[in-house]
Amino acid sequence: MWAASCLASCCAACACDACRTVVSGISRRSARIAYCGLFALSLIVSWMLREVAAPLMEKIPWINTFHHTPSREWFETDAVLRVSLGNFLFFTIFAVMMVGVKTQRDPRDGLHHGGWMMKIICWCLLVIFMFFLPNEIINFYETISKFGSGLFLLVQVVLLLDFVHRWNDTWVGYDERFWFIALFVVSLFCYLASFVFSGLLFHWFTPSGHDCGLNTFFIVMTLISVFVFAIVALHPAVNGSILPASVLSVYCTYLCYSALSSEPRDYECNGLHKHSKAVSTGTLTLGLCTTVLSVVYSAVRAGSSTTLLSPPGSPRAGSEKPLLPLDKAAEHEEKEKSKPVSYSYSFFHLIFSLASMYSAMLLTGWSTSVGASGKLVDVGWPSVWVRIITGWVTAALYIWSLIAPIMFPEREF
């Protein structure tokens, strides 16, 4: 017994030392990666509790307040929402605290980049505290999460449009034959991929012998968008380019596939998964990892976007101040000045807050369960319509970005 106690104490001490070593190694440059790691950890915790916490939560009196105990899926959804709420509050508090931070001399700059041991402890306490809240608060959070998830998807679309336009401007700006050829090759590949992918969608999701008019409508609308992108972008009156149009075509086609593959497994027109009533652990893990990477990328990309988030006067916002001083006198003078932050800390945390809502909706199937698909990640009709509408919004925003300068020539876009 004494030996076991000593061994446990040694293990606990080693674990604490390891945690202190990790958090002390988080520098200014790696802070955003650390936030992403914390967010990814929240998704892993949500997934684990979704799988194992239901029997325990059924015995908690302030959660199971029903005369008739709900289904297991209800407790799984509730566990995910409670972890998501804790994560949402953590990042929202930081978003509010970081409002107005413009220079690195602001004391809140150190709070944003340091104090990781305390941050992890606070995050754990927040998540644990969420399991003591009444169900009414969780139900309210579930409702607003649907709207927050929509905002997050809108941010994703804006970031994608910003990315493809900057990609095109960079290659065209080289003004060399090689880059023009590369632009043409990439555009051609994207269009071929869109058409081939669309053909596969017809094969997978409009099986013969079934009335699949809705799926056909989704695929045809996507193809129409692909043609409209090319026609508008190449119109002489529009200052467009074929590269953004082709990349957006692939993205909209992917959204259509993602929507159709999220249809219930027992839906007769879901030919890709019609024989799959459940998923293996490997498939479920792959789906969750894809979700994590997508959400984390969007948050990091938003946190470093030069268009959306860089405060005025920051180096990324186009400040003419040299990043490296030319001599020691200039270096000393530069150190005396307040260094601007390179991105908006507040908006960075806000993106993670919205991403917390979005990930909760993915893990709960937008708080719905359809038969055997209640165990699947992001499956159900709400998931289908969210992706379809996201594709339509993407198409509308891209077309607007092309025609707005013509409709309002006196305004700068």
From TrEMBL:
InterPro entries: TDE1/TMS
Compartment(s) where it occurs, according to its Swiss-Prot or TrEMBL record: Membrane
Sequence intervals crossing the membrane: 31-49, 79-101, 116-135, 147-167, 179-202, 214-235, 241-260, 281-300, 343-363, 384-408
Keywords, alphabetical: Membrane, Signal, Transmembrane, Transmembrane helix
Superkingdom as given in the UniProt entry: Eukaryota
PANTHER family with a match to the protein in the record: SERINC-DOMAIN CONTAINING SERINE AND SPHINGOLIPID BIOSYNTHESIS PROTEIN, SERINE INCORPORATOR
Family the entry assigns: Belongs to the TDE1 family.
Name of the protein: Serine incorporator
Organism (species): Cannabis sativa
Organism placement in taxonomy: Eukaryota, Viridiplantae, Streptophyta, Embryophyta, Tracheophyta
